[in-house]
Amino acid sequence: FSRARVGSFFQEQPVLKNPFLEDALLRGYLKRHLPEEAILSDLNAFGERVAKDIDTWGRECELNPPRLVHFDPWGRRVDHIVTSEAWKRLKDLSAQEGLVAIGYDKSFGEWRRVYQMSKLYIFSPSSGLYTCPLAMTDGAAKVIQSVGVSPPVEEAYRRLTSRQPERFWTSGQWMTERQGGSDVGTGTETVAIPQADGSYRLHGFKWFTSATDADMTLTLARVQDRSGSTTPGSRGLSLFYAEVSRDEDGRLRGIEVQRLKDKLGTRQMPTAELLLDGLPAYRLSEEGRGVASIANMLTITRIHNSISAAAAMRRQVLQLARDYATRRTAFGKLLKDHPLHMQTLARMEVETRAAFLLVMDVCRLLGREESGLASEFDRHLLRLLTPVVKLFTGKQAVAVVSEGLESFGGQGYIEDTGMPGILRDAQVLSIWEGTTNVLSLDVLRCVARSSGMVLHAYFAHVKSLLAGASGVSSLDPAVKAVGGALSELEQFVQIAASRSPSYLELAARDLAYSLARIYAGALLIDHACWKDASPNDTYAALRWCEQELCLVASKQKRGCYDSSSASMDAALVYDNLIQK
Ligand code: MFK
Fold this sequence. Notes:
Helix content: 40-55%
Shape: globular
Protein name: Acyl-CoA dehydrogenase family, member 11
Largest sheet: 5 strands, mixed, barrel
Bound molecules: decanoyl-CoA
Mean pLDDT: 95
Domain Acyl-CoA dehydrogenase 11-like C-terminal: 453-574
Keywords: FAD, Flavoprotein, Oxidoreductase
Distance between the termini: 64 Å
Radius of gyration: 25 Å
Domain Acyl-CoA oxidase/dehydrogenase middle: 173-277
Number of strands: 11
Domain Adaptive response protein AidB N-terminal: 17-146
Low-confidence stretches: none
């Protein structure tokens, strides 16, 4: 009787398989650029581990989110952030697998970052967001390296890049205050009071500190002079290093955890509001050079963000969606036999391939820079592409993950399938580490600061990638599309160079998107020209290049950035108010 009531059909669920073996583009890319057997077999073994065990730990982190215990049973303030066992296991695993250490291992030469980020790419969707502390840990190691691995941060550097779980440390990055998420220079109120021994005590309120269970942090504050005054704006900010430790009574030294944030997603990871009340700290930068000194961390965390975005698209939805399409029958046949369903997945695949190649190219450039092989040209490209790729892949991830959920029908909307959490987590990728607009403006700033040299490097590199495809007739339409879009972009830049800052500001987002789409087109073409490329690589390049690649040029022709646009945009937004 009960069987008749519930029915006898149960849908098979999608199955996660080894994400390394499942990813033709990743394996093709590595075979082309990094064909070292030991690395490939490490990634394969790690992929196996991810599918068998780690994915379950990541899910456990989502199901057992961190909680804050303010007081012990006897009323003493303890501020313990209690995390799940799985979260702690992921820390140990991160050390053992060298998820930060590989990026600092000189033996992997200029490909160290491609290797490290490939591993993180496999790990990220199963990591229970442990990739967030790893991003900041990596960023902190990079900052320390840039200011000099010497006391008081020598030991910290060793720990951040250690492969031994018992020595491994993670780092926070406490930048955001109530007034300053994006506008850090204006919004940072935290002050640093000099101590007789040369150290400082920090007093302030950090509004959004992710992975707050870290062992140390880098943060910004204003040094107070003898009269208690500070310098306003960015020029008053300095970079500080602080360890998170407890006193003999078990209380956090100089920190009170006000509360944990109640976030839309990324709930696996503790994010807190922190009152800094005399936190002992050391200044790492020259006074007033805080933003410039922490910029290295921003570069690294923005690249990690891009990796997470590409990985969410690739694995969290595409690998599962294509598996599901072999198990789910509707209207008399499997989903995989419905051409429209396959077209939808294929479009997601094209987006994902573009994202992957964009991110890997940034990793390639970073590896070249860190191994001392980068030319001036490479450095310009890295500076320009870091914000472009972060902002572009962040937006792609939200769109692709949302589409991906739909490919599971109503099940994609059901909480305990784990799918809704993927969408929630994707949403943050365009927000933290610089929103889309802030990064679009960063693109303008780096163009201006380099007197256009970053664009010069960009144009030259895209042209060289296209030149490599000349004579490959199957790619002709794609090469023509990218070449045409590049010329339009060059024309736009020439016109824009004589326009006002407000004109450029209105064009900033479209410019960044155009830079990303054209560059991705060139990378897809380049990959399809490789001797072992498959017809699928060519098809993906052709499909990508069918879209409008240089939207900034077409919008410019339509007058979208003219001086009247700003006031008309505002009138439209406040339409109701103006009518009243
Ligand atoms: C899985 C991944 C997980 C990731 C972890 C996420 C957890 C954390 C959550 C967070 O969201 S943490 C907070 C993230 N906050 C931001 O990303 C801040 C966003 N705002 C910006 O990026 C603004 O553009 C910025 C604060 C940098 C603007 O500040 P300023 O003081 O107006 O910068 P300005 O004057 O343009 O530059 C000051 C110096 O820094 C210059 O150096 P110089 O003085 O030597 O010329 C710049 O060249 C340098 N600089 C600024 N941005 C840079 C940079 N250098 C390199 N790269 C950059 N992006």
